[in-house]
Design goal:
Blueprint: E1 8-12, E2 21-24, E3 29-32, E4 39-40, E5 52-57, E6 60-65, E7 71-73, E8 76-78, E9 84-86, E10 91-94, E11 97-102, H1 120-151, H2 154-167, H3 169-196
Parallel strand pairs: 3-4
Antiparallel strand pairs: 1-2, 1-11, 3-5, 5-6, 6-9, 7-8, 7-10, 10-11
Helix pairs in contact: 2-3
């Protein structure tokens, strides 16, 4: 058991990395095989890049699955929208690797009293809002790109004018008025030219 002055940590308790300690100095953090993970498990081939997200809660840590790697907290499956909380002495299994959680009296988990932690429903809502706005932004960019291409080409502008002429009655009326005036002016100029000669 760790004493005060140390950080909370995950300790690998099986496999080729047995005994490796991963101190927790801040959250959120990721567990996985990717080099950006604070808890990087390199030798377990059943683990993918960013397998789990860990956030501090009062007296423990919330574990949420982020990819297809199986995650279990104290024997119960953790999912993307159904997280689990691990406390001191509890176990997290990521792929085939088993990690033990050790919390210390002045560690991050014990200092997290009173912090409002996200619920699974809140996480689900945030996830779908982010996805919706991401898709909306992509669609808006796509449509903007198409209109930019159309408006910067002569053929595109001509096509827009033709569509406006046939499908917008007020535009159709104005064009006919302008064309009628133009034809009248041209006729007058031609007639005067022939009269003068």
């Amino acid at each position: 058991m760790r004493t005060a002055g140390y950080a909370d940590c995950f300790i690998v308790v099986n496999g080729p990395e047995d005994g490796t300690e991963h101190p927790i100095v801040r959250t959120p953090l990721y567990l996985g095989q990717d080099s950006t993970c604070a808890v990087q498990i390199r030798l377990d081939t059943s683990i993918q890049g960013l397998s789990a997200l860990v956030t501090a809660v009062s007296e423990g840590y919330r574990v949420r699955r982020m990819d297809m790697t199986p995650i279990f907290v104290d024997g119960k499956r953790a999912g993307r929208f159904r997280s689990r909380i691990v406390r001191s002495g509890g176990y997290v299994q990521v792929g085939n690797t088993l990690l033990c959680m050790e919390c210390v009296p002045d560690g991050l988990a014990s200092r997290s009293h009173g912090i409002v932690s996200e619920s699974d429903v809140g996480w689900l809502f945030q996830h779908f809002v982010r996805r919706f706005f991401g898709l909306f932004r992509a669609l808006l960019g796509f449509v903007t790109g198409i209109f930019t291409r159309i408006l910067t080409s002569g053929m595109g502008i001509f096509a827009i004018l033709v569509l406006l002429y046939f499908f917008w009655p007020a535009f159709h009326y104005r064009v006919n008025q302008v064309v009628g005036i133009g034809i009248g002016v041209v006729r007058t100029l031609i007639w005067r030219a022939f009269q003068g000669g």
